[in-house]
Each structure stands twice: as structure tokens, then as C-alpha cells.
Specification:
There is one protein chain. This protein is an alpha/beta fold and 291 residues long. It folds into three domains: 85 residues, Arc Repressor Mutant, subunit A; 100 residues, D-Maltodextrin-Binding Protein, domain 2; 97 residues, D-Maltodextrin-Binding Protein, domain 2, CATH 3.40.190.290. The chain has nine helices and 14 strands. Strands 4-3-5-14-6 form a five-stranded mixed beta sheet, with helices on one face. The chain has a three-stranded antiparallel beta sheet with strand order 12-7-13. α5 crosses α9. The mean pLDDT is 88.
């Protein structure tokens, strides 16, 4: 059984990218991680990591050993969880990072229903669009919208929503109705996530640079500004449901609306996710399956 000493530490270092990060994941000291890795390398008879003053990388032998060890650890965790599946009570704290009107209006209620199923579990939702450090901030997973740029993260598609461009009747009366996305350069646009809006023109997606004097990363604020006549807004269609129904906003440029406004569940590493996080993710995926 001594051959398993250091294996968990080794996998943690390989997946978190450093000794200190692995120590945070495993809730132990950095010196403990270092000792376990050194003993493991002595036992297997080769170097598993190439160390420099600035970074640490797997050696060729390390890559092979990591792939084998990861399968063993995954199998062990799954076996343990399957045995306890029928009699567990989720506890501890689930920490989620989210942002935007979709998260406020739909993600939060979905997590509330999950909380009702597990009354001993605490849930913290941080409504912030900043990039989070999953290890240092203790975030189990994040809800993100649009294109993802960090290839080190694991992303699961939650939902894709159709886009909609709208303006208030007051704004259109004063500034006219645009008939093509290219005309947006002559209009005041309310900017949410970015200032390049994608539309379908002749069957292909094209980006149009827009500008305006109001910007907010909160969807509810964007809707309110649009209803006040401050300009044209372009966000996922369901964001405007209430305002459209109340005839406070008017859909425009409908033939050019793009699809594929995707929301993602993003997390650092499946391997070390606690059961409460995996079950919460599964709950969200099932909840939005037929959204």
C-alpha cells in the first residue's frame, strides 16, 4: 500500500500547476506536498516534474504516470460515492460565481430548488463578472455567458438563447427605425458585454461595431435604460419578455437576429470537485434541458 503514498499529491500538483496550489486543493502544507512528491519520485525511479524557478511541468514520464493515476483516483472516488449515494446528506458550502440578468432571474431560482432538496447545504452566489481564481477564491463553479477564452477551464454548455434587438417607441420616434445592422453606427447603442454585435446577414454571422453613451454588465439595468429611451439594446431574447409584453420595448432588425448566445457552467477541474458541486451542476443541466 506504500506505493499509493504521494499519488494524490502528485495528481493535485499536475492539475493545479504548482505545489502551493495543490496544497490549497488538498488543504495541507506546501512542504508536505514537496516531501510526498520527492518520495514518490525516488520510489518510481524517475523525475515526474521538470522544475524551474518560475514554473513546474510534467516530464514525459510524468505525463504517462499522471494519466494512469488519474484513472485510478477517479475510479476510487466513483466507487466511494456510489456506495454512499443512497444515504448521503449534502453539507458544507457550495460557492458559485455568476453574473447577469439570466443568472439573477433563472440560475438563482434553480439553485434555490436545489437548496430545498438539501437543507443541510449552504449556498453562496457571488454575482460578479470578474475572472475568478477557482482555487484561491474557493469557487466550485461559475456561470459564464458568451465566448470563453481560458482553455485551462472545463466548460459545459448550459443553454443557447436567441438574440433580440429592441428599442423603446420613444427612441424610434425620435431617431427612426434601422432596417439593417449596418445602420447601427448612426444610432446610440446600449452596450452590455461587448461593443461588437453579431447578426446574420445573407446566412453568415457578421460583427458590427457599435457605440453609445450607456454601458452596463447588468442585463436588468440595460433593459431599464432601453425603456428610458437611451438607445438600442441587443441581448438574449428572454431578457426582454416583460418589457415586450408591456409594449415598453419594440423588437427591431428581426430578420438579422443571431442565435447561439450561450451560457456555460465553468469549473477548474472535474477530478477534485466535491459531490455537492457535481450534483448541483447535474441539477442545473437537467433544469435547463427543456428551457
Amino acid at each position: 500500500m506504500d506505493s499509493f503514498d504521494g499519488v494524490f499529491e502528485f495528481v493535485a500538483v499536475a492539475e493545479s500547476g504548482g505545489f502551493s496550489s495543490a496544497a490549497k486543493v488538498l488543504n495541507c502544507s506546501t512542504s508536505h506536498i514537496s516531501r510526498q512528491i520527492s518520495r514518490l519520485e525516488q520510489r518510481v525511479g524517475c523525475s515526474l516534474f521538470a522544475r524551474t524557478t518560475r514554473q513546474i511541468n510534467l516530464t514525459e514520464n510524468g505525463v504517462f504516470y499522471y494519466q494512469q493515476c488519474k484513472q485510478l483516483i477517479t475510479g476510487l472516488q466513483q466507487a466511494n460515492e456510489q456506495l454512499a449515494q443512497q444515504q448521503f446528506n449534502l453539507s458544507g458550502t457550495l460557492r458559485v460565481s455568476a453574473a447577469g440578468g439570466f443568472a439573477e432571474n433563472y440560475i438563482a431560482p434553480a439553485l434555490m430548488s436545489f437548496a430545498k432538496l438539501h437543507p443541510e447545504l449552504s449556498i453562496e452566489i457571488d454575482f460578479n463578472s470578474r475572472m475568478v481564481n477557482f482555487v484561491e477564491d474557493g469557487i466550485d463553479f461559475a456561470i459564464r455567458y458568451g465566448e470563453l477564452h481560458d482553455s485551462n477551464l472545463i466548460a459545459r454548455k448550459l443553454i443557447s438563447r436567441s438574440m433580440m434587438a429592441v428599442a423603446s417607441p420613444e427612441y424610434l420616434a425620435q431617431n427612426g427605425m434601422p432596417t439593417h445592422p449596418s445602420e447601427l453606427k448612426h444610432h446610440n447603442c446600449i452596450i452590455a458585454n461587448n461593443d461588437t454585435w453579431s447578426f446574420l446577414v445573407d446566412g453568415t454571422k457578421q460583427g458590427y461595431k457599435v457605440k453609445g453613451n450607456w454601458r452596463s454588465n447588468n442585463a436588468n439595468v440595460v433593459v431599464s435604460a432601453c425603456m428610458q429611451g437611451l438607445g438600442i439594446a441587443y441581448m438574449p431574447e428572454r431578457t426582454f419578455d416583460s418589457a415586450i409584453e408591456a409594449e415598453q420595448l419594440t423588437p427591431i432588425l428581426k430578420p438579422f437576429w443571431s442565435s447561439g448566445a450561450t451560457s456555460w457552467i465553468v469549473y477548474h477541474n472535474r477530478q477534485f470537485q466535491p459531490l455537492r458541486a457535481r450534483l448541483a451542476i447535474d441539477h442545473l443541466l437537467q433544469h435547463f434541458q427543456d428551457f
